[in-house]
Amino acid sequence: MNESRIQRVVGIDAGGTRTRARLADAATGRTLGEGTGGPGNALSVPAAALVRHLTEALRGALGPGAGPPAAVVAGFAGGGPGGGREKALAAVEAALAGLGAGRAVRVDVRGDAEVAFAAGPGTPADGLVLIAGTGAVGARVRGRRMVSAADGDGWLLGDAGSGFWLGREALRAVLRALDGRGPATALTEPVAALCGGLSKEHVVRFAYADRPVRLAELSPLVVGVAAGGDTVAEELLDRAAAELTSTVGALEPRPGEPLVVTGGLLGPGGPLLSRLTDRVRPLGLTPAPVPDGLPGAVALARLLA
Amino acid sequence: MNESRIQRVVGIDAGGTRTRARLADAATGRTLGEGTGGPGNALSVPAAALVRHLTEALRGALGPGAGPPAAVVAGFAGGGPGGGREKALAAVEAALAGLGAGRAVRVDVRGDAEVAFAAGPGTPADGLVLIAGTGAVGARVRGRRMVSAADGDGWLLGDAGSGFWLGREALRAVLRALDGRGPATALTEPVAALCGGLSKEHVVRFAYADRPVRLAELSPLVVGVAAGGDTVAEELLDRAAAELTSTVGALEPRPGEPLVVTGGLLGPGGPLLSRLTDRVRPLGLTPAPVPDGLPGAVALARLLA
In Å, how far is A80's CA from the nearest CA of chain B? Predict the structure, then answer.
């Protein structure tokens, strides 16, 4: 077993953009080291790349020497049940072994919803979590395990109220303004600039030119135009918040239970946070925004150790 | 010039599924020959394949010998302004030349909306056309030329009320039924059978496994389940008809003007035809369904000759 004086644990938050790892004192939770690596979505990142990105993040967090940590908990986007859990677990174990830290370590792999929920105030065990970034998913957690989910169906079928959804709806609003199906909007000018011209053909060509999910990059533009007072953009943010509220509603919320929210749209200061807060108040819920799931992964690792 | 006794013209209807050509007597419109070839979408089919499919269709229509036709009009999906008109024109000319029928022929390439409109009763010159098949687009035609369009924005951004739209919404309705965001629906059982299992994971995996546009193949299933009295499926058909009505409305319809409708959902006996008819009646419009644009292409070729 670990013979160093302090028992150490590692939390990992592996998302679609990057992988973060944090080394902490198991007794106090104090951070001892951090590292970052490439994308860590357990479904979309190939196995070899997943090991490499985890190794980058773990190397930074563990630092030189000092032996294996007592426990590792890793939350993966796409790492839930029915997702890439086995692949993610194998990747974590391979990365730890490659760093000479694989011996006698307890490893647990979770979906991103579970570590995000555990990042909530007081490391709650039961309640709801809602993530809205590029995608959108809600989950009910019981005993620190996800027991049901709503949406998270991806850009083609769902992720209603997500960054992708906002970007796609912004393009649709511009197309509707251009062909007379919808009202004029201040979204038109910046979208036309992005698409290289002010016509439906330009917008359509832009949209189909690359991976659909990249339309999520348009969501800050919607937020900015809405801040300028554009009614169409404001309505898109309202509709996004309404969709996310409907996702929460599908989880049969109970008044007063925890609702942890995160992701680019709902983290601290996120552009949909106040709109969501207003809408879930009648359900007896108060969103607790967290920047990401990393502290939750650390908290779960401390419990595991 | 053509020295045979009868002056002959060719109409071509080139769609996403197949290309059809018809040889007709320029004076009477009587059909003299027909041929069919592979897909003819001017945007998505590569140039060499487009020439090959046009050659197949033209060879069948022209038959052996008999010299070049006086005029050829070809309507192409994706062949409108801003689309693949130049590519389509070059392909028609290459196919005619390859068949030894290129000399002294007048050739005109149109978008599918123009030939579909010309297929309406009495070969109208001015009015509206609405196509709802795999995709959905509306257009205003003046002097047999399209002057404005609504929707036709493709599966990612639009085609509201199309076959793709119905198929995607059917999967979404099943996902919402499965995770509690929506009501139970009789769509669930046949969709689960198609997806290989009764879970959100099965439906999501099916949807992302191949080209999104293939979801249009689910639209007959929606029609069938709606016919069985399922409220959710009926509402999808109602919403599709409402979306198509909105597309017509964006063209600023005038009471009493022609509205030619076609495509799998709106042709004669099409599953959305009566719903659309009810909805456009308050606008003073009566849809005239036609099976396809081929007779319109022939009519335009007779006018050209």
Answer: 11
